[in-house]
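hiii so my PI (J.) wants the whole complex modelled not just the main chain, which honestly fair. so below is everything: three entries, each one labled with what it is. i double checked the lines twice but i was tired so who knows lol
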Amino acid sequence: MDFLAFLVTQCLNALSQAALLFFLGCGLTLIFGIMRIVNFAHGAFFMLGAYVGWSAVYVTGSFWGALIAAPILVGGFGAAFEMGILRRLYGRDGHSFLMVTFGLTLMMGEAIRLLWGVAALQVEMPKSLSGIVFILDEPFPIYRLFLAGAGIVTALVIWQFLERTRLGLLIRATSQNAEMVHALGTDVRLVRSAVFGIGCGLAGIGGVFAAPMVTASLGMAPNAVIDTFVIVIIGGMGSFLGSMIGALLVAFVQVFGSYYFPDFALAFMYLIMLTILVVRPGGLLGKEA
Amino acid sequence: MRMTLAVAVLLALLPLGLPPYAMTLLTEALIMALFAMSLDLMVGYARLISFGHAAAYGLGAYTCGNILLHTDIPLPFAVLIAGVFSGIVAIGVAWVCTLATGVSFSMLTLAFAQLLYAVAFKWTSVTGASDGLAGIPRTKGPFGTAFFGTKMGFYYLTMACLFGSFLFARAVVRSPFGAVLRGIRENEAKTLSLGYNTRLYKIAVVAMSYMLGGLAGALYAPFAGFANTELLFWLLSGQVLIMVIVGGTGTLVGPILGAVFFLLVQQQLSTYTDSWALVFGAIFILFVLFAPEGILGLARRRRAH
Amino acid sequence: MPLLELQGLTKRYGGILAVDQVTMAVEPGEVRAVIGPNGAGKTSLFHLITGVVKATEGDVLFDGQRVTAMPAFGRCQLGMSRTFQITALFPEMSARENTSLAAQARDKQRWRPLGGGSVFAEAQRRGDAALERLGLTHVAHRPAGLLSHGDQRLLEVAMALAQQPRLLLMDEPTQGLSVEETAQAVDVLAGLFAAGDLTVLLVEHDMEVVFRLAEKITVLHRGAVIADGDPETVKADATVQSAYLGGYA
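here's the output for the full assembly
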């Protein structure tokens, strides 16, 4: 295959990968930016989304149905957890959140195993998306294009949501001055629960998107959580734009890295993260963690 | 000091009355206790929360495993060398991680552990990749070191390492160095403004912590006879952190208790259910929420009333 | 030779000029106050002198040595000790432990990980002496976080003193104190300075405190020095009066 075709297909690959990573990273950075919580359980929510998505497809027979049901259920669960447990920790230092969400990760992993079993679950790709298309004479899965597109659309939707809607405004205001927002009459606690729920919902929908490609399995959570942190640390904790850049960077490194250095792509990615952190401890665009 | 001696004597006499199966369990508990105590040095005394302490454990295990497999160095020395080596590597790790503070520091320690995990997965010649190292011998040597290869002997070796490390750690936290750590823990900015190069102290305590953690891993390799990538996995880092928090940070003794508690509960639970992760996750959350000073902290509060 | 010399010291934050070409010399044994309206750049100047913030231009010379590039902890080791506008202590340690840790910082073996009994003994001796000079011996064993605000301010001074500094920098020592506490603090400080063995650079808002304690005054306005000299001259200076004192005579 000629080099241009190779380059284009790999770039498209990277874009679709970046989309997946973006769903994860954007949710995490949103949660951190607004609530200063580092959600260790983010990968577990991603995994939960995949499994819930599988069940939704099983029950309704529709992938699109799963795309709607999963984020709502997962986000709802996230919001409930925030209201029940995380809320008690505000005012304590950041490590408490990290530890509690770590405990949640352990519990969720085990709960999923109990509810869905150990075997990896295959989610059916919808017929309309399961074919291939030819780009510069090279075959390329339609689903990946769909994923890349979904990522771009989601980025735009979230950007507009934050910039133009009332809730988005409240969210941005809370991240800058929660007390003022409270003084102006809004229950900041609700904003926080909403943000946590939205963040987890984003992770959940990422899980549904990922499921047809990678299958729903118990190993998803640890890989996802590490990847997400790498993205968010590179892009900068709390920066929405940063999470996009981070996702792109990591995806490109992963895709091209695993082609040229298959054995060390993973290690390479961590090296990049460490290098960036050494040069700019706050991440490329971040507010300090 | 008297308390320590009493416990030492008790532990030294135990093997004379226990069945071999219990001995194995006890040895494993002591190894875990050392691992947990080592983490307390940085978590409890300098408030440097590591989410990647498994890196120390795995590093120690693989190093010792390789020494025992490929050289004639006797067991006790292999263990000590592996521990020291982990500490030296940790200086580099700490140098990078201390560029950040707070939660970023924690995530960096996790990243390093993951890096080591990823490398170990592929570096077949040194780590055996996903198969790991197997058949690690308890190499004999002169001066009766063959004794340490036996079940009883290995127990005493582990006990000696735990006690030696405990005395070392305790001496450190009571020293001028330890006083500076306390300052860093309570108000790092002020400590810096008093003229202390706080970063160096942080690097030093992380290195010490990894050295002792590596010692624990180094004991595990000949104990189990194998070393694999599970020893570097983030789940282990999380488990040992849970032991420290539940046992009580900043006490050295608390994490030892936490490790024993953890292993006992895991033992009991696994006879009833496979879902110990569910229980531990819940216990951890409850402790963080309601008893952040851990079991030892609760006991102290009781005594104070 | 002056103990502290500032040459054209400047700090720019983006478009904002916080410190503007400040040139100043402080002789050994002098007690100098730096005053000026809010936002004049006094605390920024302190940050530059102690090394907490890097200068954009200019130099800081300590006892003839250029320290402009030296990090803060290094300058402290050379003999600069500082107190802060917002009280910074170790709240769970006793007052005695606070001063001891401060004194320990100047010990060559402050880093010893094993033993170190002699280090502690010497640090405690110096710390206790500092507590006594500040009249805090009666609260030596109380946790610092539980002291009254006035005692906390004095404890901070004691910590700086325990380091046996050559230059003591005090950023608004009477900040947040009641009228009574201020009077008490000033009495203690005046007694301290009278001994003559300290060089002091003092930022203060309270003019009565300034005129009681300072031998020389430097006035800052919008980051630049507008007057420099003994209290009477400065009081009479028209520029200063219009910028700050508003006719105080």
